[in-house]
Design goal:
Elements: H1 7-10, H2 20-41, E1 47-51, H3 61-75, E2 79-82, H4 88-97, E3 103-108, E4 122-126, H5 129-138, E5 142-145, H6 150-164, E6 173-175, H7 178-193, E7 207-208, H8 212-223, H9 232-239
Parallel strand pairs: 1-2, 1-5, 2-3, 3-4, 5-6, 6-7
Helix pairs in contact: 3-4, 3-8
Length: about 240
């Protein structure tokens, strides 16, 4: 019996309307984002990447705590990196902008979304999420994760996966807001550890810290015997994310 090829059935019909030239230009655009962002951010270390909800308004306890944390980190000599948008990203940039270290905004271009917040000493615009996410990881000496939605959970999962698998260096991952995170952590213990999806030791990749001063102290304690400069092996990891 003659066999017929199934390849035509597997072709994305939309791909037929895209030329190889268009794809090549898209790849060049991605490369350009990497190059521009790396050049703009190369002098910001040590830095702390802060993630949190875009929907939290000024005056909310999460918002005010985020500003305090960012200001303390900035005054302690860190660059503070946020997504550059509204909500807790705005709070992080606002707090850092008032301190001695630079407030960094990694802005993503989205339809129907407002532009970056005005408290950015260094601002980089991205069209592609994965390019932006790499910059959050590549330049961070610590992560501070505040309450948030899918985007925040995505960043947390990305960071934990990279550290767990050894693709990124091990650095502090600090969750702020125990009441917000405790349910998720309990589920991780019960389901992920309990059913063998992760090792029990993987839960130690995160720590919950409430007080802003204690967050800064925990980051310095982590680095007190090694300094903030990445080792050669760690630099190689970051180059091969």
């Amino acid at each position: 019996m003659r066999q017929t090829s199934k390849i035509p059935e597997q072709i994305d019909p939309h791909a037929l309307n895209t030329t190889s030239g268009q794809e090549a230009w898209r790849v060049l655009g991605i490369m350009a984002e990497f190059a521009i962002a790396t050049e703009r951010l190369r002098g910001i270390r040590p830095a702390v990447s802060m993630f949190g909800s875009a929907r939290i308004k000024a005056g909310h306890p999460y918002y005010e705590k985020t500003k305090v944390i960012a200001r303390l980190l900035s005054d302690a000599g860190f660059s503070v990196i946020s997504g550059g948008g509204p909500g807790l990203m705005h709070a992080a940039n606002e707090g850092a902008h008032k301190g001695s270290g630079p407030a960094v905004g990694l802005n993503i271009l989205l339809p129907f979304e407002q532009g970056g917040n005005p408290f950015q000493d260094i601002s980089v615009d991205f069209r592609y999420f994965f390019t932006r996410k790499m910059m959050f990881v590549r330049f961070a000496s610590a992560y501070v994760i505040l309450p948030g939605g899918f985007g925040t959970l995505d960043e947390l999962g990305e960071v934990l996966t990279l550290v767990q698998t050894g693709k990124s260096r091990k650095i502090p991952v600090i969750l702020v807001g125990g009441e917000f995170w405790n349910g998720l952590l309990a589920w991780m213990e019960d389901k992920l550890v309990g059913e063998g999806m992760i090792a029990a030791a993987d839960m130690d990749l995160m720590q919950v810290i409430e007080e802003p001063e204690a967050i800064v102290e925990a980051i310095f304690k982590f680095y007190e015997n090694r300094g903030f400069v990445p080792t050669r092996e760690e630099r190689e990891k970051m180059l091969n994310l």
